[in-house]
Design goal:
Blueprint lengths: L8 H12 L5 H12 L9 H12 L5 H12 L6
Length: 81
């Protein structure tokens, strides 16, 4: 079954800005790239990125924006995992 979820336009726009920001962290850029790549329906989060997003959501050290990307990424993961 194809994943029909996709990243919202507002989150995709924020992700695009983060990817151009030289001061953004590596983790934030990874999550932003994953969220942006899922702006079209049919893409699904991989196992490694799912783990990264999950860890970011559980941690207090990440910003709300990073957690927004992480939430988007996790919501598009394979439910069988």
């Amino acid at each position: 079954m194809t994943n029909k979820k996709q990243t919202s336009k507002s989150v995709a726009s924020q992700a695009s800005k983060v990817l151009r920001d030289p001061n953004a962290s590596v983790t934030q850029k990874k999550l932003a790239a994953s969220a942006l790549s899922q702006a079209a329906a049919g893409k699904e989060t991989g196992k490694a990125m799912e783990a990264t997003a999950s860890a970011a959501l559980k941690s207090d050290k990440y910003s709300d924006l990073t957690k927004t990307f992480a939430g988007s990424v996790v919501s598009q993961s394979d439910k069988k995992r």
